[in-house]
């Protein structure tokens, strides 16, 4: 009976999925989870990372990252500014960063080896925030449900929603949240879209959009022949550089207007 009820609940959730348009106009399938559930998953995944990784004790690094995050968030649409964003800087030599639903931003100290200034750091963080405001996490979960490849995550979601009847799976929510929202790679389509959204966001906030190109060049140089493993699902580096460079040229008026309007970040 429990299995039948679970299947029925999954079928109901999948049936409730809807299509929408992403910030770049791409058709997305979303709606398998509510925004509240998505935020809870993001918070749980963030808590899991914080439990496993040490955070920096360098106040300057925390202040630096916080300044960039807050400057970018201030330029988000109203529905995203009210999320209550928080950030953490983790001690890890990998040049990595992430953002999760519910307004959670994580930065690894290794990112400072490739992000040489505030504009390049903004390029990283804006890209990750771009995933959130483009609803990529929700899209991934919905696609997992639709293709029945995320049964563990589905069970966890249903456990959180329906309570003690599926308490055993509810206990696994933290791990599944991290798996579904952080560990699994994004698709190349989502990565390209986050590039577009992130570069637009950084320009609006008064960060130089050309820095995204410089950041990627630093990434490649730091790893020798190619991008680091965590970028393995990102678009082809050469094509990405060309697209970013062309986009930066088009965004210069946005950047210049932001600066003229008083948006001149001084984060470090």
TrEMBL record:
Residues 1-18 form the signal peptide. CDD domains: M48C_Oma1_like (cd07331). InterPro entries: Mito/Outer_Membr_Metalloprot, Peptidase_M48. Keywords: Hydrolase, Metal-binding, Metalloprotease, Protease, Signal, Zinc. GO terms for molecular function: metal ion binding; metalloendopeptidase activity. It holds the Pfam family Peptidase_M48. Its cofactor is Zn(2+). Binds 1 zinc ion per subunit. The keyword Hydrolase applies. Residues 61-247 form the Peptidase M48 domain. It comes from the Bacteria. One of its GO terms (biological process) is proteolysis involved in protein catabolic process. GO terms for cellular component: membrane. Belongs to the peptidase M48 family. This is M48 family metallopeptidase.
């Amino acid at each position: 009976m429990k299995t039948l009820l679970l299947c029925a609940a999954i079928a109901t959730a999948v049936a409730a999925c809807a299509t929408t348009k992403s910030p770049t106009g791409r058709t997305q399938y979303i709606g398998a989870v509510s925004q509240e559930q998505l935020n809870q998953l993001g918070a749980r995944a963030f808590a899991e990372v914080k439990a496993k990784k040490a955070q920096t004790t360098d106040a300057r690094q925390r202040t630096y990252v916080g300044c960039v995050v807050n400057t970018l968030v201030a330029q988000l649409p109203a529905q995203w500014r009210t999320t209550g964003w928080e950030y953490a800087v983790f001690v890890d030599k990998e040049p990595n960063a992430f953002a999760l639903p519910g307004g959670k931003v994580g930065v690894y100290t290794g990112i400072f080896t490739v992000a040489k200034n505030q504009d390049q750091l903004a390029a990283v963080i804006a890209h990750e925030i771009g995933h959130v405001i483009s609803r990529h996490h929700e899209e991934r979960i919905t696609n997992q449900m639709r293709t029945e490849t995320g049964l563990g995550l589905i069970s966890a979601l249903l456990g959180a929603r329906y309570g003690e009847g599926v308490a055993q799976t509810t206990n696994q929510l933290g791990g599944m949240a991290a798996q579904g929202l952080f560990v699994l790679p994004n698709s190349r389509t989502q990565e390209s879209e986050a590039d577009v959204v992130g570069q637009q966001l950084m320009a609006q906030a008064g960060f130089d959009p050309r820095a995204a190109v410089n950041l990627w060049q630093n990434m490649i140089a730091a790893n020798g022949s190619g991008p680091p493993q965590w970028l393995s699902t990102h678009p082809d580096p050469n094509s990405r550089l060309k697209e970013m460079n062309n986009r930066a040229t088009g965004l210069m008026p946005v950047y210049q207007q932001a600066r003229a309007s008083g948006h001149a970040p001084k984060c470090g």
